[in-house]
Structures are given as structure tokens and as C-alpha cells.
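ok so i was messing around last nite and threw this chain in just to see what happens. nothing serious, just curious
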Amino acid sequence: MRRLVLIGFLVVLLPVASYLTSLAIEIEDQSKVDEAQRMPTSADVIVVLGAAEYNGRPSPVLRARLDHAIDLHRRRLAPRIFTTGGAGGDARFTEGEVARDYLVRQGVPSEMIIVEEQGDSTVHSIIIVSEVMKRMNLVSAILVSDGYHIFRAKRILEDRGVTVYGSPRPEAPKSLWEEKWLYFRQAGAYLLWRIGVNI
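result:
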């Protein structure tokens, strides 16, 4: 009986592990490509996925994403920037609001910034972004985040009917094992989204 359970476990586990490994390789490939450089025309908006803020100031990760978005905006690759992210446990500030304030301080006109402040996960933020884009007749986006995050976020936004170009923010090199873990973790999160579990 124990042997049958083990065989059944392996029959399920091995294909899932193989799929996740293959998916992690796709995620790694996507993480190294800046599709904004190859767009046939400018996009409607730059979507910056939220990250931590500290008492009203963007964390280094969020600031790096925003600086990358500013660079894309100044190169006229899209006229608007869409900041995202809810409170994340902070009673006074949201990631989206902190990101907007940072952009304004860096010279981005406030009328060119759209803010999403309700999202409490990647999926939730992207659903709100897609709904706002639809109301504003915006159909294409440059998606800015960390490289390992682009694949999953891009697929979710594409699933909502948006044409998406991934543009990972520049970041310092990580150890090989840290990188592989991030890709594998995103593969798991993507698989969960595909089966209806939103994180």
C-alpha cells in the first residue's frame, strides 16, 4: 500500500516539477528582455508595479522601478505613467500614492500620472489597472517591475485584453541560487493563477 502511495505521489509530482522547471526557464528568459526597445509605436501607458514604501518614501526597489519608468517616459515611449499598490499595512500611505508623489518631485506632470491604491496583490492591482485602462480607452502598456516578476504580471495583464511590453528595471546581480529561487517561485505563483488562486 505504501509503495502504491509513493508511486501515485511520483506520478503527480514529477510532471508538475518538470512543468515548473520549464516555466522557470521561460520566466528567466523574459526577465532579460526589454521589449520597450522594440515596440512598433509608443504605448498608451507605463504601468509600474508597486513595491514597499517606508513612511511615505519609496523603498530602493520601488524607487528603481520609478526611475526606470521616468527614463521610458522621457524617451517618449508612453505619455502616461500608472502607479499601483495599496497600503500594505501602512495606515497613512499607499504604494501608488508614494510612487505618484515621487514622480511629481522628479518632474513628471501630475496630469500624466494615474494612480491605483487598492491592490493588495499583483493580480488585484492588475485587474484594477486593466479596468481603468478600459474606461480610458488605453489598449497598450509598458510593464515595469523587477525582471523575475515581468512574465507572470505580463500574462495576467494580457489575459485582460491589454497589449503588453515588459521592461524590467535595472538591478544589481543576485547570486545564482537566489535568482533561480525567484524564477521558480514566480513559476509556482503563475501556476496558481492559472488554476484560479490569486496571490
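not much to say yet. The chain has a mean pLDDT of 91.
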